[in-house]
Amino acid sequence: MKKFLFFALLALPAIFAVPATDSRFAEVERLMKAARRAMLIPGMAVTVVEHDQIAWSGADGLADLEQQVLATPETVWRIASVSKPVAATATMQLVEQGKVKLDEPIWTYLPWYPRKGDAVITVRNILTHTSGIRHYDYEAGEKESAEYFPTVEAGSHVNGVDREPLQFTPGTKYLYSSYAYLLLAGIVERASGLSYEAWLREKIFAPAGMKSSSLDRNREIVAHRARFYRKTDSGTAVVNAPYVDNSYKWAAGGVLATADDLARFAMALDTGKLLGVDTLKFVYTENKLTDRKPTGYGLGWHVSTDQDGRLWAEHSGGATGGAAYLLRCPSEGLAIAILCNLERPGDLKKLSMEMARAVTKSAK
After folding, report:
1. Residue 156: which of 250, 219, 239 has the closest Cα?
2. 42-64: per-residue pLDDT in tens?
């Protein structure tokens, strides 16, 4: 009976959506509903930004399977590694103020972080994933820490990664690393004199109008917070995701938000509310290694240029029990924000691009 109810609930209509009177957004809604069902995702929310305005917002399915709570545009989800562009933005705000220097060794701001012999890790290395600090060992379950860490310094000790040697000389290779990115919260705190949480609230969430965004604190009551799920080993049903405490990685994957909030973040960047035009050009410039090989990553964003010369900046997120994708074309004021409560659901990048094509008829 429970399995029957689960699949019956997957077929619920997307009743929480701005009426799709425009055929383009009707297609976005169709894509959302079809993808959610095909991927066995309990609940999903999508927001479309066009010309730097929220043009359509909708949700489908369930935010909570056990309580049968419908997903809505007000549902709050884990944005996972889409937290990284947020952290990069906070860091670059301090660069603009002259309080952080990109090519300064991280020990200027993090004197407690262990030295790595003669290797010099810079702030830029952290932002561009070229630090040499490794990423999670998924097979060892490192991503699913259940321990609460009261400070960034304490969180940096998780799994003993801070004591390990670097994987390579900083700047010589690209290695995506949440263990490196979590250090940005400490850099922001040292340079600003505020807690990372306070900086985000005052300098990013408030100016952008991200009213439902916060750090993912388990003990706090968060209105409209989704519950989180993963597929069974067979991939034919879902179960509750394990308990995790994301306090060790606020900057790398510890933010909660609605899809509308992610859209507002994109709009705030595009309209200059968070960073200046010259800084944004720098942020979107593809980083190159010491051998001049391009990495496909700027300062907090995966970046690429389409056949029409338009820049695309995007980031995925894979949380315990959730997933996210934020696709942007800044020159067009276009963004697609996708959030859901299923771990590793499927190709959200492809879905976001299909939605972008539906809206513009000419997306990459």
Report:
1. 250
2. 999 999 999 999 999 999 999 99
